[in-house]
């Protein structure tokens, strides 16, 4: 799955917490989110002086970000509720990073069939 297709898939499943997401879908969206955040910071610093654009961007991308994170955990055969482990300092972030980088199950699991790259 390429960059454009990953972004398109995430936004077409804006608030869909069902199913599975491949590693490429998650990480391309993470890169997209990071790049937009950098642009928003630069614009806010130079033109506005306050993090207005950055806050609006965060509000607009929080739902698809959580949704793709839940679907990514589903791909590794874990419940989306494991996303809440992010609130455990340090350990939670490390564990999520390992899970998000891990290969998903190669066959169907309790969350659906293996996602297909087009």
Please give a structural write-up.
This protein has helices spanning 3-12, 23-48, 52-75, 91-101. The protein is an all-alpha fold and 118 residues long. The model has no long low-confidence stretch (mean pLDDT 92). The chain has one domain.
Overall pLDDT: 92
Count helical runs: 4
Query: H/E series, N to C?
Result: HHHH
Question: How far apart are the termini?
Answer: 6 Å
Main sheet specs:
none
* Number of E-type strands: 0
Question: How many domains, as an integer?
Answer: 1
Question: Which stretches are low in confidence, meaning pLDDT under 50 for 5 or more residues running?
Answer: none
Structural class: mainly alpha
Estimate percent helicity.
55-70%
Strand content: under 5%
| Rg on CA atoms, Å | 15 Å
CA-based shape: globular
List keywords for this structure.
118 residues, mainly alpha, globular
At a glance:
This protein is about 60% helix and about 0% strand.
Describe how the helices and strands are arranged.
Elements lengths: L2 H10 L10 H26 L3 H24 L15 H11 L17
């Amino acid at each position: 799955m390429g960059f454009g297709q990953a972004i398109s898939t995430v936004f077409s499943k804006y608030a869909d917490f069902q199913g599975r997401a491949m590693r490429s879908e998650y990480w391309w969206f993470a890169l997209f989110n990071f790049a937009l955040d950098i642009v928003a910071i630069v614009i806010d610093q130079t033109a506005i002086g306050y993090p207005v654009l950055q806050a609006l961007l965060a509000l607009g991308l929080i739902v698809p970000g959580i949704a793709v994170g839940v679907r990514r955990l589903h791909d590794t055969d874990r419940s989306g509720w494991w996303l809440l482990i992010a609130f455990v300092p340090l350990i939670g972030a490390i564990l999520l990073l390992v899970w998000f980088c891990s290969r998903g199950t190669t066959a169907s699991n309790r969350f659906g069939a293996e996602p297909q790259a087009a």
